[in-house]
Write a structure and sequence with these properties.
single chain; two-stranded antiparallel ribbon; 66 helices; 67% helix; 1% strand; TBCD_C; HEAT_type_2; ARM_TBCD_2nd; beta-tubulin binding
Length: 1241
């Protein structure tokens, strides 16, 4: 998982000024009219713009809004209150109706205030709400009236008003002094009958199920607020939180406690937990209320008398719901934890007294036991709450009891941990096996340790076991049955724990922690160094981006707070950077290598980790490939740093480490085998460099080669004899290993004396298509027996590898085929090439997948250098055999995938470079492939590969003028030009790159700079013909511009598809470029119009080109381009006949519609000097004939064109004759009469 490169906070800081200025400017007009009167309704779209467009982006950096909250919230609050005070009830409900376009002003204001609460927090925003007591009953009455009205308030309105009421509950004098039960509401204009109804409703509200009012006289405000709050405390929305705040505030008031309101609410809440006929949100709200009053009384004794009663009720309800019940939801269980945590904290305000009280002791012990059980809960929020609660309680316990809690947590981490001995090495230390542990419980336990460390609860004596647990957590990983990772949260909690450890404990305390010998017997370093190494491993190799970044942050804290305790500490922090580790590929390969260069101990640790689940055992194939490359690169770096010229010896240790891991794999561990083989190959890639850097004795190199050769025999024989679960992965990895072993096989063949001068990495050699392979083949005199055995095993495996269809296998399998040919005898090479050519020539019989021979297309084209070493007769025979086989297969097999594979196999090889004349027809066929089937335009795959082949050939012959002129010729150039203008983006971008090759450097750079869908890009293509001599390479300009008419025809045959059937932006850009080109000169217009007319004639039957051409012709008629062509330059009557031919007996609706539009363009064009009388007559006649078309849609389109012609030519009479009639349903006689009367027969 890679983090995004773009930092959103930086972008937000840059644009925050504009967003704030826009909100400032918009807020005043949004709330009030120009005369200052508050609005009754506002536009819904404007509200959404203010909220989503201007405020929501600040969720990333909410503090940017702090300086502006007061100036925004003050007018919002004032407008809200003014609306309530100055609008009577009837008007408010009449004008406040919500529609799709308008919404009431209070709803809009509440939406904005809620958004500010969401961004900045309600505790910050509530301070800016008006706290004048006179508005308490105004808000309360408005909420009550909204409950009775047909148009209910939005949840944002209820949330804001309830939050506001909770703020007003802080009034410093008794509520009885400001209560008025007879108060009618916020408006003095209420009718008397409404007042009576209001009083009756208020009295009915006081009857609450399960709630008993105190016997004392309760103020009217209290009697009105409590029923509303209890109602909304069961809401599933945010108003539940505001209602809870109201209840907490009113119950904790001194005057309400004196009136026994707190007693009544506690009794109601405790009783509500025993009622099972409520929604889960009801219990969540009740528990939230209990948690709120307990937290609010943390510094008082107000709740002491209720603690035992509340604990028994809550804990009892939780126990009853353990197997399903009203408190079985995750939010309910989290709320239960908050309540019992608050009770325990209140009891532990005086730990000594609590320890002497049996009831308090029992509650605390029960709480701790309950929280320890909840650490393994299935829901993450519950585990978070339990771990935090346990750490808070532990901080307040006596030291002895706190130590027991820490030990219980650590002991739980040892549960179900298995230890296994290595059967092959009994003396080796036992290995830990975490496969039986519960990852959810480990997350809770690790999180608890982190919270304990953050609050510095554990004494220093417990640090060794805690640190050991954190180290285990940093490398913890488990897979779900579906293969997904379920250990990420454990590692995340461990990062938090190490970060907290570094912050809360001194260097002296950490250095005093002993190193666990059973796990780190090789290390005499401090525990701080071990922690830093583990964090480096997590920061470089972890699959999760948040873990890599969290490890980086913890590493920075560890090194920064404990200086001079970590080797190259400052440099390590700079390398394992928080932003640098965001991209996994960069972290695994670049950062891991950089940290290895700082100190060898880091490289050794990374190598070991790469052989675990973090590297070769990763579920993602791309990550395993990156891990393999990293293993090879780090092994090479360690070999370079080896003292005493021991580079080869160091590489040998890496190889032996990999081989040991491979031997320990079970057959089902295919992914691990894939990663290990790639790691083996990456190590071998560095052998040539190591031989130059530090050449050892011949015995050392010979021993290394012997180890690798034996391993190759064993691995290749294993691949041949066993069938693995994912054979494609094994084929890819084994083929890569064969290619990487090229220098080893070469050293074993030519000897070790001069090997350092001739060896090159196999991946480099197989990509070199000049003469590197030929030189090495010629240097081989005799082939050792073991090398022959390896070559034979490779050939046997290739029978399977070359029949694979996966894209990852084919290139490396064909490279392995090349290696096999290099180390085979001449007769074997000839026979093998003949065998492969036969497989290429013949299409597989039915029942066999056609793609199964595609690997041989690559195998027969790559070994050109090997063929070149044969004697002349054998060489000519082999080359002719390959070219003939490929051409025959191309002609006999029309499958597009086969053509693509052949072109891929040829591209970039000496076979194509030296046989370009023989394969030219194949490339041209590929450029012209427009095959479509159920998959869509599959021919585009062939066109793409043919473009790449053309580009490669052009680049190869760029410095050979004679050959360059021939291979560029108009046959290829004009096709590339056409493809550079067609509608498919992926085709245009490839053709753009190919076309730039034949341009002069300045023009090529300009073409590459333009985006392939811009107006400038298409203008460049159109301008290329007039400026060919100036822009094209001088060697090819004359060749490709010999027929300028053909040039324009080919270009427009591709461009019309972009101008008609591309996406909207592409159509606009193409038509704009074409129009501007025509407007620049009359010659341009004439060239375009004539080319389009010729294409209509030459492309008959090719609807792919014909229909877009008709549409573009109609467009150019309507914009006046055709009308400006010189007189006699275009035969418009002939154009009409070509259009008629295209439309004749066609079932293509789009084509018929395009023909109608062309006829309409001809008759309505503003004819000037070009003339077109004959064309107009023919077009009118054809439109009249199309009025008899059987399709109503065509008739309607013809009438539209006639109407447009009548408007342009002032034909009012014509307009009157065709108006008011549905011509799509008209009778034939009436249609004929109309056609005759307007002169269209």
């Amino acid at each position: 998982m890679d983090a995004p490169e773009d930092e959103l906070d930086i972008k937000l800081q840059k644009m925050s000024g504009d967003l704030i200025a826009d909100f400032d400017k918009s807020l005043g007009p949004f709330l009030r009219r120009k005369d200052g009167v508050v609005r009754s309704r506002v536009r819904s779209r404007e509200t959404e713009r203010l909220v989503s467009g201007l405020l929501n982006p600040f969720q990333e950096l909410p503090q940017l809004l702090d300086p502006h909250l007061q100036k925004w919230l003050t007018p919002l609050v004032d407008a809200f209150l003014e609306y309530l005070l100055k609008r009577d009830t009837k008007a408010r409900h009449q004008n406040g109706a919500t529609t799709d376009l308008l919404m009431p002003l209070p709803a809009a204001i509440s939406k904005i205030i809620y958004t500010l609460c969401k961004i900045r927090g309600e505790k910050v925003v509530v301070r800016f709400l008006n706290n004048e007591t006179k508005y308490l009953e105004v808000l309360l009455s408005a909420l009550e009236q909204a409950e009775r009205a047909e148009e209910r308030w939005t949840w944002e309105q209820r949330y804001v008003v309830l939050l506001w009421l909770s703020h007003l509950m802080l009034v410093p004098f008794d509520l009885a002094s400001i209560s008025s039960l007879s108060s009618p509401g916020p408006s003095s204009t209420l009718e008397e009958e409404e007042d009576v109804g209001y009083r009756d409703a208020t009295k009915r509200q006081t009857n609450i199920s399960g709630f008993t009012w105190p016997a004392t006289q309760v103020p009217g405000i209290t009697r009105r607020i409590i029923p509303l709050a209890i109602k909304y405390i069961a809401s599933p929305g945010k108003e539940r939180d505001a209602a809870k705040a109201v209840l907490v505030r009113i119950s904790m008031r001194r005057d309400m406690q004196a009136l026994s309101v707190l007693d009544a609410l506690i009794a109601w809440a405790v009783g509500a937990l025993g009622v099972e006929a409520q929604t889960p949100y009801y219990y969540i709200g009740v528990l939230g209320f209990l948690s709120g009053i307990l937290t609010s009384s943390a510094d008082t004794s107000d709740m002491d008398v209720y603690l035992d009663r509340i604990f028994k009720a809550v804990h009892g309800a939780a126990e009853k719901s353990s197997d399903g019940g009203p408190l079985s939801s995750a939010l309910s269980r989290k709320s239960v934890i908050k309540v019992i945590r608050a009770i325990a904290v209140l009891l532990l305000r005086n730990p000594e007294r609590a320890s002497q009280d049996d009831t308090s002791t029992e509650i605390i012990e029960t709480t701790i036991s309950f929280l320890l059980e909840q650490l393994g809960d299935n829901d993450t929020p519950v585990r978070f709450a339990a771990s935090k609660a346990l750490s808070i309680i532990t901080l307040r316990l006596e030291p002895d009891m706190a130590t027991q809690v820490v030990e219980a947590v650590i002991e739980s981490l040892s549960k179900n941990v298995l230890w296994h001995k290595d059967p092959s090495n009994p003396a080796a230390p036992r290995k830990r096996d975490l496969s039986a542990v519960d990852p959810l419980e480990w997350h809770g336990l690790m999180l608890t340790l982190a919270h304990l460390l953050y609050r510095r609860s554990p004494p220093a004596e417990n640090l060794p076991d805690i640190i050991h647990a954190l180290i285990m957590g940093l490398s913890f990983e488990r897979r779900s049955p579906s293969g997904g990772s379920i250990g990420t949260n454990v590692r995340d909690a461990a990062c938090f724990g190490v970060w907290a450890l570094a912050r809360r404990y001194s260097t002296k305390e950490l250095l005093a922690v002993p190193t666990p010998e059973r796990l780190y017997k090789k290390d005499s370093r401090s525990i701080i160094q071990i922690l830093a190494t583990e964090l480096i491993l997590a920061g470089c190799l972890d699959a999760a981006g948040n873990i890599r970044r969290g490890s980086s942050a913890a590493l920075q804290e560890l090194i920064g707070r404990h200086p001079d305790t970590v080797e190259e500490g400052i440099k390590v922090v700079q390398v394992v950077d928080y932003h640098g580790v965001a991209l996994r590929g960069r972290a695994v390969q670049d950062i891991a290598l950089s940290v290895t260069k700082l100190a060898g101990l880091y490289g050794e640790a990374v190598l070991e980790a790469l052989l675990s689940w973090r590297g070769v055992g990763d579920a993602d194939a791309a990550s395993r490939r990156a891990a393999g490359r990293a293993f090879g690169g780090i092994s090479a770096e360690l070999a370079r740093a080896a003292e005493g010229g021991g580079s080869i010896a160091r590489l040998r240790r890496s190889v032996e480490l990999v081989l040991e891991s491979i031997r320990g794999l079970a057959m089902r561990q295919v992914e691990e085998r894939h990663g290990l083989l790639l790691s083996f190959a990456a190590v071998l890639d560095s052998v040539p460099e190591m031989m130059v850097v530090g050449m050892e004795s011949g015995a050392g190199l010979e021993g290394f080669v012997k180890v690798v050769m034996d391993a190759l025999v064993w691995i290749l024989d294993d691949c041949q004899s066993k069938t693995y679960r994912k054979p494609a992965l094994i084929a890819e990895a084994a083929s890569t290993l064969v290619v990487a072993a090229f220098p080893i096989l070469q050293a074993a063949t030519i000897g070790f004396d001069d090997a350092d001068k001739q060896l090159l990495p196999g991946a480099v050699l197989v990509k070199d298509d000049k003469d590197a392979i030929s030189k090495r083949v010629k240097a081989i005199k005799t082939i050792p027996e073991q090398v022959q055995q390896i070559a034979s095993l490779i050939k046997t495996n290739l029978a399977d590898w070359l029949t694979r269809t996966e894209e990852e296998v084919l290139p490396v399998a064909s490279d392995a085929a090349l290696v096999m040919l290099v180390f085979s005898g001449q007769q074997q090479r000839e026979s093998t090439l003949k065998e492969w050519a036969e497989k290429v020539r013949h299409r597989p019989s039915s029942g066999v997948r056609i793609k199964n021979t595609t690997g041989y297309f690559f195998a027969v084209t790559k070994p050109y250098q090997v063929v070149a070493t044969l004697d002349s007769e054998a060489r000519n025979e082999a080359q002719g055999l390959v070219s003939k086989a490929l051409n025959e297969r191309w002609q006999n097999d029309n499958d597009v995938d086969t053509h693509v594979a052949i072109l891929k196999g040829l591209t970039g090889t000496g076979t194509l470079r030296n046989g370009v004349d023989m394969f030219m027809d194949l490339v041209i066929d590929g450029l012209d492939d427009y095959t479509t089937n159920a998959r869509g335009d599959v021919g585009s795959l062939a066109r793409l590969q043919a473009i790449r082949a053309t580009k490669w050939v052009w680049e190869e012959f760029r410095n050979t003028p004679d050959r360059w002129k021939k291979v560029v010729g108009s046959r290829l150039f004009l096709r590339i030009l056409r493809l550079a203008a067609e509608k498919l983006d992926r085709v245009r971008v490839e053709a753009q790159a190919a076309l730039a090759v034949v341009l002069k450097p300045a023009q090529g750079a300009k073409l590459r700079k333009d985006t392939f869908s811009s107006v400038g890009y298409f203008s460049f293509l159109l301008d290329l013909l007039p400026k060919a001599e100036e822009w094209l390479d001088e060697h090819v300009a004359a060749e490709v511009t010999a027929d300028r008419g053909l040039w324009m025809e080919e270009l427009l045959s591709g461009l019309v598809s972009s101008a008609d059937t591309g996406n909207e932006d592409l159509v606009i850009a193409t038509r704009q470029a074409l129009t501007e080109f025509c407007e620049r000169s009359a010659d341009n217009s004439l060239a375009v119009c004539c080319a389009l007319v010729r294409n209509l004639k030459s492309r008959q039957g090719q609807d792919r080109v014909l229909v877009p051409t008709l549409e573009v012709v109609a467009f150019l008629f309507h914009v006046g381009v055709f009308a400006n062509c010189p007189t006699g330059s275009i035969d418009y009557k002939g154009l009409c006949l070509q259009v008629q031919k295209a439309c004749y007996k066609t079932g293509n609706v789009r084509k018929t519609e395009a023909c109608v539009r062309v006829y309409g363009g001809i008759i309505a064009a503003p004819w000037g000097k070009s003339g077109g009388d004959e064309g107009i007559k023919e077009a009118k006649r054809r439109l009249g004939a199309l009025m008899m078309h059987p399709w109503p849609r065509v008739k309607s389109l013809v009438v539209d064109e006639i109407w447009g012609w009548s408007v342009v030519n002032g034909g009012d009479m014509v307009g009157q004759q065709i108006m008011g009639i549905d011509w799509a349903k008209a009778e034939k006689g009436r249609i004929k009469l109309m056609v005759k009367s307007i002169g269209f027969e």
